[in-house]
Amino acid sequence: SAQVGGSAVWLASHVVRRKATDLVADLMEASPADVVLAEGNFSIAGVKGTEMSWSAVAEAAHERGVDLTAEEWFVPGAQTFPYGVHVAVVEVDLDTGEVRLDHIVAVDDCGNVLNPMIVEGQLHGSLMQGIGQALYEGVQYSEDGQLLTSTLVDYAMPRATDAPPITSERLVHPAPSNPLGVKGTGEAGCIGAPPAIVNAVLDALAPYGVTDLQMPLRPATVWTALERARDEVATSLV
């Protein structure tokens, strides 16, 4: 992950940069303090025509026998957790028990964001995993222990067409436990989405006496809970 592996790469890259800076300073007969690295090129501050690309520096290192490799370890001193708030908007068909997911809003603190596109993809992907857990996915066995959901024909998973409109926003509070200030992203949606969806359905069904539901919220599960609540209400009136 970026927290551990990325931090090790960050540490190693600084060692390589320092070696490259010393080499450029030697080649240019300058002080390492005057070497600038910007936009992929080394140069001497304030001196035109001294630009050297990384590839040119690597070639010079090879010719001079300079080692531009580094090996670094990073052991986090503390665990890092992402934080977030997820809200689900649902509709429930009282006759069939079908749940329709109309909208999901997810606001997550992933720490420093290194690649916004990848982070957004991780959040959307994990949201779909969470939707699958809440509404579709479940392992079932027969009474004699035979697995009944061994293929994708039997084991329901969300498809792209099942994705609701998603509003995703980010907060940035850098993690103090690693030099990049990053936090985990890949599980944010599958942690936040299931309880948000289940609680939204329970909120919709609260006027009908439903107080508890077990995932996945398949139509039969929701319909059975509604019928049980109706029976309890009818019994209490007798």
Explain how this protein is built:
The protein is of the alpha+beta class and 238 residues long. It is 40% helix and 16% strand. The chain has two domains: 2-64, no CATH class; 83-237, Aldehyde Oxidoreductase, domain 4. The chain is built from five helices and six strands, in the order H-E-E-E-H-E-E-H-E-H-H. The chain has a three-stranded antiparallel β-sheet. A three-stranded mixed β-sheet has the order 4-5-6. Helix 3 links the parallel strand 5 and strand 6 (166-171). The longest helix is centred in the first third of the chain and has 27 residues, at 2-28. The protein starts with a helix and ends with a helix. The mean pLDDT is 93.
The tally of helices reads: 5
- CATH fold-level name of the largest domain: Aldehyde Oxidoreductase, domain 4
Task: Note the beta-strand portion.
Answer: 15-25%
CATH class of the largest domain: Alpha Beta
Rounded Rg: 28 Å
Placed side by side, the strands forming the largest sheet appear as 1-2-3
Structural class: alpha+beta
Give the CATH superfamily of the largest domain. Aldehyde oxidase/xanthine dehydrogenase, molybdopterin binding domain
Shape designation = elongated
In helices, the fraction of residues equals 25-40%
Q: How many separate structural domains?
A: 2
Low-pLDDT runs of 5+ residues are none
> Could you give the count of β-strands?
6
Instruction: Write down the overall mean pLDDT.
Output: 93
Going by CATH, the architecture of the largest domain would be 2-Layer Sandwich
Q: H/E series, N to C?
A: HEEEHEEHEHH
The largest pleated sheet is described as: 3 strands, antiparallel
Distance between the termini: 60 Å
